[in-house]
Amino acid sequence: ATEAEELDLVIIGGGVAGYVGAIKAGQSGMKVACIEKRGALGGTCLNVGCIPSKSLLNNSHLYHTIKHDTKKRGIIVGDVQLDLKAMMGAKDTSVAGLTKGVEFLFKKNNVDYVKGTGAFVNEHEIKVDLNEGGERTLRAKNIIIATGSEATPFPGLEIDEKRVISSTGALSLDAVPKKMVVIGGGIIGLEMASVYCRLGADVTVVEYLGAIGGPGMDSEIAKQSQKILAKQGLKFKLNTKVVKGDASGESVKIEVEAAKGGKQETLEADVVLVAIGRRPYTKGLGLENVGLETDDRGRVVIDKEYRTKIPHIRVIGDVTFGPMLAHKAEEEAVAVIEYIQQGYGHVNYGAIPAVMYTYPEVAWVGQSEEDLKKADVKYKVGNFPFSANSRAKTNLDTDGFVKFLADAETDRILGVHIIGANAGEMIAEGTLALEYGASTEDVARTCHAHPTLAEAFKEAAMSTYGKAIHY
Ligand code: FAD
Ligand code: NAI
């Protein structure tokens, strides 16, 4: 081993949490290294998550629209064909461009990019098994763990990424399956089910709970979303749990039973996607060498300033508490560097938006009706359907609505929930409103350009504190 190098900061993991932290540290002149074993920066999000999934969602939506939805728009197209290989190629090009972009930003901000697997030797030293062979030891005043998460496996159903796949396999199948079963109707399940349904697969989503969307989605929105997705051809089995899987035969067999009541059934598929959640990843990190423990869900335990019980070792992103979202990881990355440098930082966990990129998109920020009921908060509701919005009508895209939840007494916005085209962009306005402590009247009295989908947002706010004009 070479002699340890002394740095201000070492970050283990070059995902969104790690790379953003490294750039922020580099920008302010810290001597920083970021260790990543994958061979590319950007982590799950850029390589096998947010970015490739959105590429496939966008292009499969275009394919489906051109194949099935042009006639009423006055466009006659010929024989529309799918070139899955080229669609995957377009995805790979987007991913490569973005991961290389992060590498460029590392150079620009003097971040030492160390390609290899890092593990704790002691409280200040990390040993890196270099991808190219050999090892390097880094010594630092501060260490950030940003090692992310991995797909939770389904017991007894081994993931081979060909017939039994996680989201990673779903992003690079070489053929569209005839029959696909998706275990878990959360965000990964629904996004990937949408992609393959649009490309022609017969897809059944099995969900243990009585509603789709995973944790946090307002139940009125979840119901509406399910109806729309079912119209697109997706099949759902709710209140149904998968008890066993068997991939030894020609097709994969999935035994399911009613969550209550025990009625059993066997589903068969060419490809089964396991999408039952993700879990923190700390394998091989050597936490035991510094006496750091994880909780019952594998999360490294921290305080409000992201500190472990060893104060100069901090943890951010998917590997610790909070929603497993890239923009949450990014916020924490900036905050943690501010904590290290100046002793204070800021993330508003009450205003982190969530977006499901199906068609139409579903987006929300703040609390759902279920949250408010549980907390016994008195609230009022405002609604505006896209079917009454001029731009949505012009675009022939009228599915969905905007819903506001506001304090019954003060009118302060408590939650915004949208289902509709472009909901993922529109939610930024709701997030800003929540961050600023706005009332629905504040939003309703703000001029919105015409004709835009955002006018539905304004009118939903109007309908919360008074009356909408167009509905
Ligand atoms: P990760 O991105 O997982 O990065 C951790 C990195 O650490 C990895 O690259 C890993 O190789 C590296 N690493 C681990 N251990 C070591 C070690 N010992 N030494 C060196 N390197 C190590 N979120 C959104 O907000 N929007 C989306 O649209 C979205 N879509 C998604 C789609 C899919 C299919 C999936 C799976 C996830 C999606 N997510 C999305 C979630 C998002 O990807 C994560 O929240 C985000 O990547 C978390 O960032 P992170 O840096 O904490 O962890
Ligand atoms: P999830 O937690 O969102 O959903 C998993 C679903 O599987 C739940 O609804 C659960 O009830 C169900 N389930 C669990 N066990 C089951 C069983 N045995 N049988 C049937 N159903 C079962 O997890 P998912 O979809 O895997 O996503 C993981 C994380 O990735 C999410 O937390 C999300 O934050 C992130 N992500 C974000 C995206 C976005 O922001 N657009 C896209 C994709 C992922």
UniProtKB/TrEMBL annotation:
<feature type="binding site">
    <location>
        <position position="54"/>
    </location>
    <ligand>
        <name>FAD</name>
    </ligand>
</feature>
<dbReference type="GO" id="GO:0050660">
    <property type="term" value="F:flavin adenine dinucleotide binding"/>
</dbReference>
<feature type="domain" description="FAD/NAD(P)-binding">
    <location>
        <begin position="8"/>
        <end position="333"/>
    </location>
</feature>
<dbReference type="InterPro" id="IPR001100">
    <property type="entry name" value="Pyr_nuc-diS_OxRdtase"/>
</dbReference>
<dbReference type="InterPro" id="IPR016156">
    <property type="entry name" value="FAD/NAD-linked_Rdtase_dimer_sf"/>
</dbReference>
<keyword id="KW-0547">Nucleotide-binding</keyword>
<protein>
    <recommendedName>
        <fullName>Dihydrolipoyl dehydrogenase</fullName>
        <ecNumber>1.8.1.4</ecNumber>
    </recommendedName>
</protein>
<feature type="binding site">
    <location>
        <begin position="184"/>
        <end position="191"/>
    </location>
    <ligand>
        <name>NAD(+)</name>
    </ligand>
</feature>
<dbReference type="Pfam" id="PF02852">
    <property type="entry name" value="Pyr_redox_dim"/>
</dbReference>
<feature type="binding site">
    <location>
        <position position="207"/>
    </location>
    <ligand>
        <name>NAD(+)</name>
    </ligand>
</feature>
<dbReference type="GO" id="GO:0045254">
    <property type="term" value="C:pyruvate dehydrogenase complex"/>
</dbReference>
<keyword id="KW-1015">Disulfide bond</keyword>
<dbReference type="InterPro" id="IPR036188">
    <property type="entry name" value="FAD/NAD-bd_sf"/>
</dbReference>
<dbReference type="Pfam" id="PF07992">
    <property type="entry name" value="Pyr_redox_2"/>
</dbReference>
<dbReference type="GO" id="GO:0005759">
    <property type="term" value="C:mitochondrial matrix"/>
</dbReference>
<feature type="binding site">
    <location>
        <begin position="324"/>
        <end position="327"/>
    </location>
    <ligand>
        <name>FAD</name>
    </ligand>
</feature>
<feature type="active site" description="Proton acceptor">
    <location>
        <position position="450"/>
    </location>
</feature>
<dbReference type="InterPro" id="IPR006258">
    <property type="entry name" value="Lipoamide_DH"/>
</dbReference>
<feature type="domain" description="Pyridine nucleotide-disulphide oxidoreductase dimerisation">
    <location>
        <begin position="352"/>
        <end position="461"/>
    </location>
</feature>
<feature type="binding site">
    <location>
        <position position="277"/>
    </location>
    <ligand>
        <name>NAD(+)</name>
    </ligand>
</feature>
<feature type="binding site">
    <location>
        <begin position="147"/>
        <end position="149"/>
    </location>
    <ligand>
        <name>FAD</name>
    </ligand>
</feature>
<keyword id="KW-0676">Redox-active center</keyword>
<comment type="similarity">
    <text>Belongs to the class-I pyridine nucleotide-disulfide oxidoreductase family.</text>
</comment>
<feature type="binding site">
    <location>
        <position position="118"/>
    </location>
    <ligand>
        <name>FAD</name>
    </ligand>
</feature>
<dbReference type="InterPro" id="IPR023753">
    <property type="entry name" value="FAD/NAD-binding_dom"/>
</dbReference>
<feature type="disulfide bond" description="Redox-active">
    <location>
        <begin position="45"/>
        <end position="50"/>
    </location>
</feature>
<keyword id="KW-0560">Oxidoreductase</keyword>
<keyword id="KW-0285">Flavoprotein</keyword>
<dbReference type="InterPro" id="IPR004099">
    <property type="entry name" value="Pyr_nucl-diS_OxRdtase_dimer"/>
</dbReference>
<dbReference type="InterPro" id="IPR012999">
    <property type="entry name" value="Pyr_OxRdtase_I_AS"/>
</dbReference>
<dbReference type="InterPro" id="IPR050151">
    <property type="entry name" value="Class-I_Pyr_Nuc-Dis_Oxidored"/>
</dbReference>
<keyword id="KW-0520">NAD</keyword>
<keyword id="KW-0274">FAD</keyword>
<dbReference type="GO" id="GO:0045333">
    <property type="term" value="P:cellular respiration"/>
</dbReference>
<dbReference type="GO" id="GO:0004148">
    <property type="term" value="F:dihydrolipoyl dehydrogenase (NADH) activity"/>
</dbReference>
<dbReference type="GO" id="GO:0006103">
    <property type="term" value="P:2-oxoglutarate metabolic process"/>
</dbReference>
<feature type="binding site">
    <location>
        <position position="318"/>
    </location>
    <ligand>
        <name>FAD</name>
    </ligand>
</feature>
<dbReference type="GO" id="GO:0045252">
    <property type="term" value="C:oxoglutarate dehydrogenase complex"/>
</dbReference>
